[in-house]
From TrEMBL:
Keywords: Amino-acid biosynthesis, Cytoplasm, NADP, Oxidoreductase, Proline biosynthesis
Family recorded in the similarity comment: Belongs to the pyrroline-5-carboxylate reductase family.
Keyword Oxidoreductase: yes
Gene this chain is encoded by: proC
Biological source species: Diplocloster modestus
One Gene Ontology molecular-function label: pyrroline-5-carboxylate reductase activity
Pathway(s) it belongs to: Amino-acid biosynthesis; L-proline biosynthesis; L-proline from L-glutamate 5-semialdehyde: step 1/1
Reaction catalysis annotation: L-proline + NAD(+) = (S)-1-pyrroline-5-carboxylate + NADH + 2 H(+); L-proline + NADP(+) = (S)-1-pyrroline-5-carboxylate + NADPH + 2 H(+)
Enzyme Commission (EC) number: 1.5.1.2
Full protein name: Pyrroline-5-carboxylate reductase
Alphabetical list of HAMAP family matching this protein: P5C_reductase
Domain of life: Bacteria
């Protein structure tokens, strides 16, 4: 077994889907454990990977192990698998707040750990993942892990102190974007458009706008100004967004998000 997951919920299945779709690993090279049978049935049926309820089995059999349970279960899971993890295995973590130092203490011995923060767009190969590693991980090993992570989107190696910022700017931010798309579609429905069509228009506008930022290299403010015809419709929308605190809402939401990550 090459790649194992302990926890087969939303984020793990997004990663599994991306890794398989991009041919990084075959389903038969992957195994997932979960305490929730429905989650196991879902990944087994939809992705064809092996599944088990035995966390230790995954730790024993896999070269690379993703800890994909909620942060509050990390301590319990590490205690279960600790003796099955030797100096040759690589642990990938995806939980906010769980520092390399904390993780190293919980394993109670030197273990190779790569701390990451992915996001659910991994499912469609458009994720972005930040990664940092402890001293036990060599440059080659970090490059190998990054090649796995690159299977479901972009990857950047960053200093660990930025990891809480990454939670708010990319780990959690798909939720804010989905809320925006939902609200935009609601407004379009209120103005008479069919809901399915409204989701298509709103989503494509968001996708195209993100692509413009990435591909033109222009400042987002300049791109916004290009949409605002003098005396036109967009500047009216911008005026109301400013009045209702659109930017400030995002600013405060992301500060709260990063603060929560720091406290975990
Ligand atoms: N969702 C996201 O967008 C992102 C999530 N993450 C991180 O990914 C991790 C998983 O999050 P997410 O996928 O959303 O959570 P989910 O609840 O969807 O998945 C976690 C799964 O782990 C199971 N589980 C709980 N305890 C154990 C255990 N002791 N042994 C084995 N399995 C267990 C859960 O079962 P049960 O439901 O019964 O508890 C659940 O099926 C978290 O650390 C989260 O912070 C990181 C980036 C983005
Ligand atoms: O909500 C959470 O805690 C996780 C971390 C980033 C996205 N989801």
């Amino acid at each position: 077994m090459k790649l194992g997951f302990i926890g087969c919920g939303n984020m793990a299945s997004a990663i599994m889907g991306g890794v398989i779709r991009n041919g990084i690993f075959r389903p038969e090279e992957m195994i997932g454990a979960d305490s929730y049978k429905t989650a196991l049935d879902k990944v087994s049926e939809t992705l064809g990977i092996q599944v088990t309820t035995d966390n230790r089995r995954v730790a024993e059999e896999c070269e690379v192990l993703v800890l994909s349970v909620k942060p509050q279960f990390y301590e319990e899971v590490i205690a279960q698998i600790r003796s099955a993890v030797d100096e040759n295995k690589i642990i990938i973590t995806i939980a906010p707040g769980k520092t390399l130092e904390w993780l190293g203490q919980k394993f109670e011995k030197p273990v190779k750990i790569v701390r990451t923060m992915p996001n659910t767009p991994a499912l469609v190969g458009e994720g972005i993942t930040a990664a940092c590693a402890n001293v036990q991980v060599s440059e080659e090993e970090l490059a190998y892990v990054c090649s796995i992570l690159r299977g479901f989107g972009e990857v950047e190696v960053i200093p660990e102190h930025l990891m809480d910022v990454v939670v708010s700017v990319s780990g959690s931010s798909p939720a804010y974007v989905f809320m925006m798309i939902e609200a935009m579609a609601d407004a379009a429905v209120a103005d008479g458009m069919a809901r399915a069509q409204a989701y298509r228009f709103a989503s494509q506008a968001v996708l195209g706008s993100a692509k413009m930022v990435l591909e033109t290299g222009k400042h987002p403010g300049e791109l916004k100004d290009m949409v605002c015809s003098p005396g036109g419709t967009t500047i009216e929308a911008v005026r109301v967004l400013e009045e209702k605190g659109f930017r400030s809402s995002l600013f405060e939401a992301m500060k709260a998000c990063a603060k929560k990550a720091r406290e975990m």
